[in-house]
Amino acid sequence: MATPNPVTTQGQTRTQTEEPTQAAPNIWAVAQQQFDAAAEKLDLDDGLRRVLRVPKRELTVNFPVTMDDGRVEVFTGYRVQHNVSRGPAKGGIRYHQDVSLDEVRALSMWMTWKCATVDIPFGGGKGGVIVDPKQLSTREVEGLTRRFTTEISPIIGPDRDIPAPDVNTNAQTMAWIMDTFSMHHGYTISGVVTGKPISIGGSLGRNEATARGAVFTLLQASKVLNLPLSGARVAIQGYGNAGSIAATLLAEQGATIVALSDSSGGIHNPSGLDPAKVSAWKREHGSVVGFPGADEVSNAELLEVDCDILVPAALENQITAANAGNIKARIVAEAANGPTTPQADAILHDKGVFLIPDILCNAGGVTVSYFEWVQDMQSFFWTEDRINESLKEIMDRAFESVHAMSEHREVDMRTAAYMVAVARVAEATNLRGLYP
Ligand code: GLU
Q: What residues are in contact with ligand 1 under a 6 Å CB criterion?
């Protein structure tokens, strides 16, 4: 069997865009600050605030992997479950050298709000391993994945906590997790992860779902602002699963892709870049950089190019107090998790930028993960049309509730999404009551 490369380049752009004058804020402090703001607006009970502001369960594992040369390395990984009031924990696993417990905590909390924003019956979880998988062979990544799965297997499972792909993990990684977990139990348990290959219980449309969901929210935003996607100029930071597919889908809508980037740097051409040609270039050369007929830009410069729509689709802490004032886009669509700091949020809001917050914008991925899990549990698989139509229904409904909250309470779209989500989780937590 041919082994696909387990590590796709999921557009990581951290080093190039750090603030020159101040350290990037701690992302967990940011997540808690965002929650506090929503809790305040919702006038949430103090006890409930204390419950929801911390993860329910955190597991840290240090585990050995035998490398190709026989050396034994020990890696550190995490699985954090923020909240399970509305259903099993749900969220991806990322492999990255900058993973930390605080980052995984923040990402797990964001998953709770994301699942509640789109109103699917999951709580929030996240996992991560501190590793640069690009430095490892395929066999080493497989060994690391299988041992990490073994270490976290006491707390995952189709009814407990269901991992999925995230930065630097993909369908092959999910196949290894599913196989390892199933081997321990002695039978195939496909519902333990989502984002699997189609042939072993994956869902049609899951690979494109994050980008497709983001485009559905952009179509809604374009109606609100009367800014048609056809003819809109778009800049996308990150060329992994979300960024590269968003480029294709937006070009299909008639948008002009003026700038693209990956972890090595960016390219800019005001008269438009063809995503199919850029993808072919990246496959051959390993990066979008060097694409013929385009100017080179850094990841920091990409955020500030002249465009109508900016799509951060890489990592956290990209739009900060240092560069938010220079952003020219009218819409920022957060395909990444946590790309904008709270200070930058305030600056963008004052400038009149329409922001589609991450917990709404990129929720298409987890929504089709939900469809995948339902299909696995029923062993009954849907057509791609049914999946895409159901995704559109859920994304449109979520956009409408968030936008209505934003108008009604006169708050920005992020605060509105938090208010919708936190209210749903608070209701579930209250109804269930505290045990004992
Ligand atoms: N990692 C993705 C996210 O951040 C998908 C999670 C999932 O499908 O469970 O939303």
A: 90-92, 164, 166, 194, 337, 362, 365-366, 369
